[in-house]
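Archive entry. Fields below.
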Amino acid sequence: MKIGEFASQLGVSTDTLRYYEKHALLTATSRTQSGYRDYSQTDLKQMKFILRAKNVGFSLSEIKELLQIKFHKQQHSCHEVKNLTLQKRDLVAVRIAELTRFHQSLSVLADKCCGGEEPADNCSILTTLEDIDGLTQ
Amino acid sequence: MKIGEFASQLGVSTDTLRYYEKHALLTATSRTQSGYRDYSQTDLKQMKFILRAKNVGFSLSEIKELLQIKFHKQQHSCHEVKNLTLQKRDLVAVRIAELTRFHQSLSVLADKCCGGEEPADNCSILTTLEDIDGLTQ
DNA sequence: ATAAACCTTAGAGCACACACTAAGGTCAAG
DNA sequence: CTTGACCTTAGTGTGTGCTCTAAGGTTTAT
Ligand SMILES: [Zn+2]
Ligand SMILES: [Zn+2]
Ligand SMILES: [Zn+2]
Ligand SMILES: [Zn+2]
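PREDICTED_STRUCTURE:
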């Protein structure tokens, strides 16, 4: 299967596939005589693995680690895989907490402002940002 | 006040201040005869405004918009400021929702794995990523 | 034979927010 | 008068995940 068909089957761009090859996430099994990439069913499975991992929030470099483990399963433990997953989950939780603080602060700010069409001379959002320390504490 | 003292008062680096100047967020009021930046109390207030806006989640380009409004309050309305704030809040909410899905999926994955020290040959995390479509749906 | 559609590479660009470097000028203390 | 801390500029590097470009080669259909 050439790159164009492979890409459209997966719903990604050919650029993305070349990018993944460059970054050692997926290399087409073989090349045609004219040098075109020739993808196999195995490649399809691997690409689906990658896309699923992306869908649950893993970054490409984390996926690279997962692939290494997948290729050499006997040399890695469940412990290791679970740790990667839990670490990722914790990082996500930290980011959620930060964004939740942002959301809260922005709501507080928005609630203070009348939102009218008059000039912003006394806009509470601006004056709050000018005057008050520790908005987030 | 020279850049070093100014920076340490605010808890940022001198690099950051030069970066902000380059990107039109804050330019020191004046320069000394030898070309050193000379920051004023007004600069201090503006920098605090910027840092507070960052603290509630605004990006630097959004802060630039806020500063434009702040400088020309009469030419902008409360409506405009509130809209910026609410749009940002909505974006944050979207991102939180995405991360929450990630968190959920990662929890499901982690719960399936025994986390033991045996080889990962049958690790449920890996097999789930290999075999199952629509993990997130 | 030629046009359209496909493929190749290397490399640049984007958004974000800095951090770091090199090569040099300035200033206060000893 | 020299040392060391500070300052200047312009430019490069970091991490993330692509996207796009330029300049060209290949394949298929008409
Ligand atoms: Zn108002
Ligand atoms: Zn207002
Ligand atoms: Zn296990
Ligand atoms: Zn496992």
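CURATOR_NOTE: The pocket of zinc ion (ligand 1) is lined by residues A 113-114, 116, 123; B 78 (CB under 6 Å).
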